[in-house]
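Board notes (copied after class):
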Amino acid sequence: MTVSPQGEGSLVTRSGRITKIPWFMSPIRLVVAAAGPMLEKKLLKGMKADLEGSG
């Protein structure tokens, strides 16, 4: 953890890394990696529809 002054406040940076993931968590990572782009596309389509509908 590092603390440095920034403007009127201070900047705190924490760096950490998980080095070992339990074996039962690995399928969840695959699901999240696969679902992420699909959810993003769905969100973008919804935003586009909202913008076109309000114009």
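Comment from the instructor: The chain is about 55% helix and 20% strand. The mean pLDDT is 78.
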